[in-house]
Structure formats: structure tokens, C-alpha cells
Amino acid sequence: MTRPVLTLHPDRALPTDPTVRTIAREILAGTQDLPLVSMHGHVEAGLLLADEPFADPAALLVTPDHYLLRLLVSQGVSLDALGVPRRDGGEVERDPREIWRQVASRWHVLRGTPTRFWLERELVDVLGVTLRPSAQTADETYDQMVEALSKPQTRPRALFDRFQLEVLATTDDATASLDAHAALETSGLPGRVVPTFRPDALLDATAPGWGQRVARLGELTGVPVRDARTLVEALAVRRAHFVERGALATDHGMRSLSTRPLDAGEADRLVVTALRAAEAGRTLDVPDADALAGHLLFEMARLSCEDGLVMQLHPGVLRGYDTQVAALRGPDVGYDIPVATDFVHALRPVLEAFGHHPGFRLVVFTVDEDVYSRELAPLAGVFPAMRLGAPWWFLDTPDSLRRFRESVTDAAGFYNTTGFVDDTRAFCSIPARHDLSRRIDAGFLARLVAEHRLELDEAHETAVDLAYRLPLASYARPA
Amino acid sequence: MTRPVLTLHPDRALPTDPTVRTIAREILAGTQDLPLVSMHGHVEAGLLLADEPFADPAALLVTPDHYLLRLLVSQGVSLDALGVPRRDGGEVERDPREIWRQVASRWHVLRGTPTRFWLERELVDVLGVTLRPSAQTADETYDQMVEALSKPQTRPRALFDRFQLEVLATTDDATASLDAHAALETSGLPGRVVPTFRPDALLDATAPGWGQRVARLGELTGVPVRDARTLVEALAVRRAHFVERGALATDHGMRSLSTRPLDAGEADRLVVTALRAAEAGRTLDVPDADALAGHLLFEMARLSCEDGLVMQLHPGVLRGYDTQVAALRGPDVGYDIPVATDFVHALRPVLEAFGHHPGFRLVVFTVDEDVYSRELAPLAGVFPAMRLGAPWWFLDTPDSLRRFRESVTDAAGFYNTTGFVDDTRAFCSIPARHDLSRRIDAGFLARLVAEHRLELDEAHETAVDLAYRLPLASYARPA
Amino acid sequence: MTRPVLTLHPDRALPTDPTVRTIAREILAGTQDLPLVSMHGHVEAGLLLADEPFADPAALLVTPDHYLLRLLVSQGVSLDALGVPRRDGGEVERDPREIWRQVASRWHVLRGTPTRFWLERELVDVLGVTLRPSAQTADETYDQMVEALSKPQTRPRALFDRFQLEVLATTDDATASLDAHAALETSGLPGRVVPTFRPDALLDATAPGWGQRVARLGELTGVPVRDARTLVEALAVRRAHFVERGALATDHGMRSLSTRPLDAGEADRLVVTALRAAEAGRTLDVPDADALAGHLLFEMARLSCEDGLVMQLHPGVLRGYDTQVAALRGPDVGYDIPVATDFVHALRPVLEAFGHHPGFRLVVFTVDEDVYSRELAPLAGVFPAMRLGAPWWFLDTPDSLRRFRESVTDAAGFYNTTGFVDDTRAFCSIPARHDLSRRIDAGFLARLVAEHRLELDEAHETAVDLAYRLPLASYARPA
């Protein structure tokens, strides 16, 4: 049992039933060589512009991956031991080999998880690892990765090419510079890297540094923010800048989902109060800030009708659940927990106002499976503006991707979903994620064929649509 | 790939596993020729009395089918283009061939949906269609349907006979005339058509025209309504009329599920207030109206103990989600969205009061799968008066019918469910819906047999019970 | 079809797919002979100390089994007819043969339920039944059971030995005597019987007799309870007594889950008010009692960090749903209904305070499947102190055990779950429950292997961990 090898089986994640697997293989063959379109994610444009070799296996695979961090923490490994920086300047592990040993020696913790599925592919395909990680093989696998990372074909741009990335969308603070995107346009990269407008920190008046951010927005746009009207005006100007740089979409996370517009006076009053509070080093209280955020989100939808940016919503996550950890380590270290969200009532204002607008496209994501068949599929199955995003975060897994299709296809069909959207921070995991989705969709479609609920030619076409055409179409301004 | 044929495979919707499929086929053979009992639905008695040919394919299949309308709307087709009438008298498409072209050219939107499953059977079995609908085949398939509709065997009564309908329950406003039902009794139809008492518009004091409806109820029953007591008395008299006409059940939809009785004075006060408001052209406000509706629902349960009408509840739907669409088109055009409902607390008053009453039968439906294993199966698995209705509306689908059995059988068994209830407005879809349910139940039972959790003889008997005996027994006054 | 035999198929509850079943059989073979560790349940220590023969089949299988009672009641059998005692002294059936006839003649009601799965194994393996129960075979099967119960190998201690019980945890009121446990330690039983500290009736100031219980606690511990501080102090002393007697864990059920600590003054005030109310024959009102219970639960967690008792939570059940039944029959007769619980916010105080404490272990159970992927797996997948308990009560079923693994493994893996915990009152059902869990886990792991998501050697090891090593490790003080 020692030193088992690490390989990728061609039938991985396909259904076990022999009839269905045969059909699934055939469907999968039709999508396996399609280019990747990564319409939403968190890779940084600068990575591709700089095109420097990845520093080391830990910096590439472990320290920035909150999926992996949380599972190791859950088994008693400290974030210190995993090299996650502390804001108090305290010591953390700095030897990447030691960090990898923590992972390799707890490889069993990942059994059955999507993290393992993705990592296996990265290890084999990108990092040249040939052995299953374990305490025994930690050093040898580490050395294999170091060797691979030293080669030119493992640099970001070479991987971009090898991954067949046709579009890669980044996610960018509303006030961020888009210079890297501009530079990439003429850099000869064999695909587009487009920014995404993410104004969360401007829409939530309790966000750290909200006052300065708003001031900065005013400077960037030439529209000084004095009230809600000027705030929306400045946001509109900034959105136009993103559109010029190739942006296709906006993206919105929030503490509490609302799209309820306020009357103009009330909205102005809240912004004025928030600006005064910021000057005094305070913030708006949470209920007022949430009301304002709901108003501004409605306004973002209105602007989307005008400038054609697709609106993405990522609600329902309580971020920084453990406040001490959040204070010490910052965001994205594994302590974000889903919470129940009432989409039906929260989306009603925006759907009633713009749900039939020919220029509006709303893509809704969830980390709560319970709302698929009760709320999201029924809504996406009637409002032409709405598309249901791919299973997100905790739900981007083999079994959950399958349950997604099983739950939403009844009421929404395939063509009111966006097809696959990877939403990853881990550049090297992009192909693994798309591959998994294609496998699960092939398996689901194959079952429909085997149950005589769909013809094979239709399944083939649908698979290509889900993998490639629908993501492109969902992130294009509606015709 | 052009002009693929349309056929019905004998194994459609059966499990893919070869062992399980073989057993499922055998179980299905035992139910496939059973008569249909349609214990709840929205076909109108007048359709069978008049027995006129269906007007055209669009009027039969498209314009009245909110399942189909919503999926086409979601893809950008307007309700105008689908011929759905406007209340403002505006123009809508009137050429049924054009309407069918909208459907046929978007056939891919229905992939994987139950709507497609039902339609295929209607097209092949009732309407003589031999080609898969598409832009290319739209006219030819349209002509095939027109041809079929011109034949005597496609008239309503001939279909009733061909469908082997033993009982067909209609749903009737509490103040509706039941003359068509009376006339059908002696019309030689080879089966019963029974009315169902639906008093929603009288129980909800915010319903349009509530005052006039209540006055009409007083006239019909000879019990002038002055307060809650006389309202309940008048309803009791009207229920007796329905019982005389063969009614087996009442049916109740509501904005917000409650069964909490008020004290007599408070109930009277609310009705008096509502009557005064109606005279002044206003309505009770929503919280008061909901409290009154909860009280009256409790009273309906009390009357059920006396007159033996089975009480059906259909809660948890926000109807007319888009208020502008609702104002322009009226109800049932596809804009109804499920919302979360707390069945456990809402049903407690009625279950504590009548849950063990030998004359009471409560059938509860839901469009929210999340409550199957948490709420409804545990309740139906202890209270003798309660039965769990079949998966309803958004849940009447191949995969959801299967999940229903997988979720509720543990805590409620098979015999605390009603067996299949189709609940359709589309007369021609009745056989397709029962067929699907029989297939899914056969598949579920076959899996239990293959997993050695049930013997084959038991599976056979259970399948017949679910398809035929249990619906009949569930809608008979408890012995 | 008459007199079918009753046998246990070796492949029962294994997946139907031939490839997967073959792998599952192999995995199951590796766990089938492992000892049973029953880390939480409701068998009484006195049963094993007295070691008397079971009275009769009804007293063993029917009257105390709320799973079975509820299903029979749901079909119109009265609790009287099932021999369940009344508090008003009214007559109930006393002939166990008659009671068994009620069960046997309604055997079909149990089709597809876990109760049937467990009972079949008890009937065949423990009680020597060879025929499927039915009206026809009621007397013959009854006689077979009476015969079996007369034999020495069917006494409790002989069964304990035959079941290969290595640990059996009981659940004991905080003020209960642990003398039986002490006596069992030296009684030569081939395994440990350990108590579990359950202080519900002391933590909920609305519980019947709360005042006397608190006074009794004061007597037992020598710490008179005057306020919250002394109440916690007395509880700490009592916990120490449980630890001495071998206790590994505490267990907590509650009306409404909260772990929010109060400030010391507020907590003291509530206890003082509750003590005064008790003297006056009243109780604290429910909101205050729930606030106090949340505070005390937080304190129990704090004490767990010190004394190493694993904290188990069993929230989300509305007990005694029908108040008349509860008044007449007492608890545990089948009228307990799950309700939705917000674990994310309710657990936050205790997880923020102690979720990383090296001495704390929190095991959370649920009867609500909806929170597996949204709340519990994400929490257990990051906090080292937390483990997700096995599917409980309504969820301890073939299909739900499978759905549990399918829902939680993505975000929590296998190693943040406790492995199997039976939680039964029915001593003879313990092997059946462990057997079922091992079969379902074998099937789930086999599917992962067949889908090339896990290697066979890993599946073997994981199966043993889930069946044996993880329950032991989860109920040991964290290292």
C-alpha cells in the first residue's frame, strides 16, 4: 500500500451505470477539446502581465486556497503552520516544504472532496507529480513540483495558452486601476482578459474606509459624491471606464440581499449621514447601510439596462464568521459560512422593474441548494432577464453539480442557466473545474438519454451549449 | 439530424440500471392498464358537457398552459406573441399557426423538463404528430394536429373514454353553478365528474369583489352573512349542496397558511369590518384578512368532520409575482413563485383539534421539497387524519417525483400518501401525468426490490395502491 | 403469496449497480465483523445489570418504540390498542399477543421505512422469526418470538456479548444515580457501559419540577444554588461525578437553540427570578427561560474545555406537538416533529469562544437535511472543535444516510464527521442500525471508487474509520 501512484482516470466522475457511462463518454468527447471561457473569477490580471514563475508549491497551492486551508484547520492544523500571514506581524511558517508536508500528511482529510479532485488534476497535469501525497511521499512530491515550476511551460502565460483560455474575467474593485488589462490587450496573449466591476465596498457604507473610497471614486470620475444621486452618477462614469476596458459584467456580494429602491430624499439622506459619519471616524449603522445598499443595487440594475453590463449577484454568505480570526488574518481564509436567503422577496423589486427589459441580464448565484427548486429555478424559468449561475463555492462539487441539474432543469430547463462559471482564485485549477463540470453535465445528459427523455443529438448540442456557448451568451449584452 | 421522428419509448423514465429496469418494467406492467382516477384538477365540467372539438392546437396546447408559457417567456417570447389575452384590449397574436411556430422553433428550451415529457405524449398519442417539433417542422406538425383535432375520436368525451377516466374531479368556486355536473350525471359518460368546493375568494377578505361574493353566497344559501358565524353557516349550507352534487373534497389556496381559530367575538368583528369596508369600496388590511382566513380555514376543517368532505391544502405560492403582468393578463400565466412555508406551526391548531377525528381527512400539498423530510412526512406519519398529497406543480416532474418517494417514505411510508393526483388544467395531459407517476413509482419500488428492502409481491401491490386504490381511498370519507 | 418467509439478504441496502455492488461487498466485508461502539443512546444501564429476560414481544418491540407507534397511529390504530399507558389510569390493551396482531396485520404500512429494515433483522437474528408478519402469520410469529425470549441467549447480557458491544453510552439525567454504572464496571460485562450527562431539565427553567431538581442538584453536590454562578458551579461538580463514573460526553436537547452568554448579573437575575417563581408554583416565561438556557449552554461548553466531556447537541425538535396526547401519554410516543433551526447564528458564540480550544469537542446532530450543505458541513469543515454527528432519528434511514454523505462530504470530508452513532432506545436494534450504516457507507464509498474519485485502499480504510475508529476518537477528549 506504500507509494501508490497518482494518475487521472479517463472515466473519473462519470456515472457508474455501464449504459449511461458509455453515452456519457461519447457526450464528453464532444466538449473535452472546447476552449475554456472563464466568465467570472478572481485571478489577477497582473499575474499574466508579469508572467513570472510561481514562487513555490505552497504559495501556489496552499496558502491562497481557502478551500484547502479550512479542511486542514478543521483537523487541527493552525493557519500559522500553513504560512497564512498574520496582521499582528507574528511568526508564521515560511518554509514551503514544511507547509506542503502538512498537506501531504493529511491527504486522507480530502477524500471525497472537490478540493482533492481539483488538486489531483493540477498535481498531475501542471506539476508533474506521479505519487499520491502522503507523509511518506511529501518530500518527493514536493521536489517534483519544484522541478515543474522551474520550467518555462509552467509560467502563467504558457499555462493560459495550454489551458485554451478564450476569455478570462477578473474581478476588480470599482476604483481599481485597469492598467494591467489595458497592457494585456496588446501583449499577444491568445485570449481576452476582461475586468469585472465590483463596487461592494462603495455600496456598503459600513465597509472599512468607505469614506476614502467614495472620495477616491469622486476623484477618478470627476463627480464629487455629495448624496445618493451623485454617488450613482459617479458609479455610472466608472462603469463606463470598465466598459471601455472590455468589462462584460458587474459583480455584487452583500451582507443581506435587497433590491428595494428608496425614494430619492431618503437615499440622499442616508449617503449624507454616511459621509458625515465617515468624517467623524464612524459608520452608518447596519440596518441603514443595508437599506442603502439595497437602493444602490437597484440603481446598479438600472444602469445595467443602459450600459449592458451583466449583473451578477453572489449573496448568502456570512463572511468572517469568526471575528477574531478575521481580525488577525483578514478575509478569504476559510471562515465564510452560508446563510439562508429569501431570494423571492429580495429580487422582486429588480425583477418587476427590469425583469423584462431587453438590455438587462441578471445572473444569480447561491451557496444554498435548498432554494434551487423552490425559488431560483421558478424565477429564472419565467423572467427573460434572469439566468441561474452555475453551482458556486461550496456547491461546485461533483455531487452538487449533479444535484443542481436534477433540481433546476424541471422548472428552468438548461437554457435559463449560464452554463459553467468557475469563479476561482486558483489559476491552475481552472481546467480542472471546467473538466469536472463537463463530466457531470455529460453524465446527467447521458442519464436523460438512457431514460429516453432526450435524444442523443440533443444531448450533444446541450453539452456544448453548457460548456461553451451559454457562458459566452449569458455574459453578452442581451440582443 | 433534420426531421427526427417523434416516438414514445416503452422504457421512458424508467431507471437505467439493467437489473432495476427489468423489475420496474414488470411492476409497471401491473399498473399500466388501470383506470385513471383524477381526484384533483382544473378541467371544467362544461368541456365534457359541450363535447365540442378543440378549437386549434394553440388554444389546446399553448395559450392556457402556464408551464409552457413561462418557459417561452423566459427565453424572450412575449405573452402577446403567444396569444395570451390582454385586459387592456391590446392586440395579441391570433393566428394559432404563428403561436405554434413560436413553440416549435424553441423546442430545445423544453429539454429535460416535464412539460416536454407530457407534450410528447399528447402530440404522439392524441394529436398524431410524428416529427420532433422544430422551426423546420412547425408547419407540418401543425397540420398533423389540425387533422387529428378534426376527428370525432379527439373530442372531449371520446378522449375521456379513451383515457379510461373513472373519476374526474373539477375545482369550483364556492358560489359556482354545478349544473354542468348535474347534467353530466345522466349524460352517459363512462365515469364520474365530481365538483370540488373551493371557497378561497370567500375566505380571503382582500379578494376582488369579496363583498359581492359574500352577498351572492347569502342569496344562494338563504343565510344572509352578517358576521363570522353566519358566514360559516352559509358556507356549511353551500358545502351540503356540493356534497349532493357528488363532491368529495374542498380545496384551499391561501396567501399565508394559518389554521388558528379566533375567539368568536374577534372573528365576528373582522367580518363586520370587512363587510363595511366592502360597502365603502375598500378591503380589510392583509394581516387582519390573513387572521380571518386562518380562522375560517379552521372552521372548514370542523365542517369537514361533519360533512366528510376531504380538506385539501395548496399553500406556499406567491401568485402574480410581477404585479404589472398580473394586472395586464390576470392569473395563471406563469408568474407564480413558491415561497417558504412553516407547515409545522401553521397546521398545529387543526391537527391538535381534528388530527385524530375519525371523520376528518386532510391532504397537504407543497411546492417546497425542503419540507418533505423535515415537516410533512413526520406529520403525516403520525396523525391519522393527514395524508401527504402527490408532488405538486413545480414538483410534478420525473426527478422530483422520485425525490418525493426517497424523502418521505422513511418517515411516512407509502400508505400515508395519497398516491398520484394530477392537478392539471390540461385535459389531454392527464394520461401523460399518471403515466409518468406510475413509471417513477415503478422505478422507485424496483430499486427497493433490487436492494432487498422490499419483496416483489409487495412492490406489485404497492404500485397498484399508489396508482389507483390510495387516491380513491384518500378522497373517500374516512371509514 | 401466502406465508412468505422472512430472511435477510446478504446484499440488502447495497447499491444496485453491479460494478458498485461488487466493490461495496468487498468494502463491507472489512467492517462487518468490527465491534460495535454505541457512543450515544437511550438504553438503560439497569437493563444490563438486572439481566432479566425481556417480558414479551410487545413490551420489547412495540410499546416503547416511538418509530413504530407513530406509523401505526397514522393508520388509525389507537395508542390504547398498542398498550401505551395512560396517565389518567384508563384501560389500555394488556395482551401482548393482541398488540403484536395490530403490528403484524399492518406490516404493509412499514414498507420502505427504516423501522421495517431494523425490525426484520431483530426478528430474524434475535427473535427467531421465519415468516413475514401479516394478519395470517401474527400468531405463529408471536409464538416464535416467545420461544426465543425464553432462552438464555436472548437475555440482555448475552445479547450484549453477541452484539460485540465494546462501548455502550447511556443517557442520564444530571441528578440521576449512576449506581448501576458503578455496579456494571465490576460485573464482568465484556465491554464498557458509560453514562452521559444530560442536564436539560436543569437548563430549561420551564421544565416540570425545575425548582426541586435544582434543589436536588444542590444536595447532591453540596453547592446550594442561589444564582447562575452557583448553578454552574453545582453542575461542574456533578459533571465531575459523571467523569469519575466513566462519562465521555454531555448531551443537550432544547426548545430553541442558542449559545449566547449573558452578562453575569443578567444571568443571576434570571435564576433568582426562576427560583422565586418555582417557590410560588410558577415558572419563568419562555423567552427568559430560552435566554437563560442559551447562557447555561455556553457555560456547559466552557466546562467541557476544562473537564473534557464532549458536548452533544440535539436541537430542532418540537416535542409533544399534540398537547393533549402529551398530557395523556407523556413523551416519546411518536408526536415529536422537526422544526427549522438556524445553526449558523445559534452556534456562533460557542464556536467563536471555544471552536479552536484544544480541549473542546462539539458534536452537532440535526433532523433537518436542509442544513447539511448550507450550514453544518461548512462549519464542521473549518472549526477543529466541531464534528458533525451521524444522521439522527428521522434521518437514520437507508436513503437519508446516503444523502448525508452526498451532502456533507464535499465541504467537510469524512473526517469531520463522527462516524456512526445509533442513538436508540431499542437495545435489540443496535446491531441492525450499525449494520445499515456500514452498508450505506460501503455503497457510498464504492461509488466514489467506481467513479475514480477514491482508490480502493482508501475506501477500505475510510469504511473502518467511519464504523469504528471515528466514533471512538470523536468521543474521546481531543488530544
Low-confidence stretches of chain A: none
Q: Could you say which structural class the secondary elements and strand pairing of chain A correspond to?
A: alpha/beta
Mean pLDDT of chain A: 97
Strand elements of chain A, count: 11
- Residues in helices of chain A, as a percent range: 40-55%
Biggest protein-protein contact in the assembly? B-C, 48 and 50 residues
- How many domains of chain A? The number is 2
Alpha-carbon distance between the two ends of chain A: 58 Å
| Number of H- or I-type helical stretches of chain A | 21
By CATH, the architecture of the largest domain in chain A is named Alpha-Beta Barrel
CATH superfamily of the largest domain in chain A: Metal-dependent hydrolases
Q: What about the largest sheet of chain A?
A: 6 strands, parallel
Shape of chain A: globular
Main sheet: strand order of chain A: 3-5-6-7-10-11
Oligomer status = homotrimer
CATH topology of the largest domain in chain A: TIM Barrel
Give a brief outline of the structure:
The structure is a homotrimer of 479-residue chains. The first copy, chain A, is α/β, with parallel strands linked by helices and 479 residues long.
3D architecture notes:
The first copy, chain A, has 479 residues and is an alpha/beta fold. The first copy, chain A, folds into two domains: 18-53 and 156-474, TIM Barrel (Alpha-Beta Barrel), CATH 3.20.20; 54-154, uronate isomerase, domain 2, chain A (Orthogonal Bundle). In chain A, 49% of the residues lie in helices and 8% in strands. Chain A has 21 helices and eleven strands. Chain A has a six-stranded parallel beta sheet with strand order 3-5-6-7-10-11, with helices on one face. In chain A, strands 1-2-4 form a three-stranded parallel beta sheet. In chain A, strand 10, helix 18 (371-380) and strand 11 form a beta-alpha-beta unit. The longest helix of chain A is centred in the middle third of the chain and has 22 residues, at 286-307. The radius of gyration of chain A is 23 Å and the shape is globular. The relative contact order of chain A is 0.13.
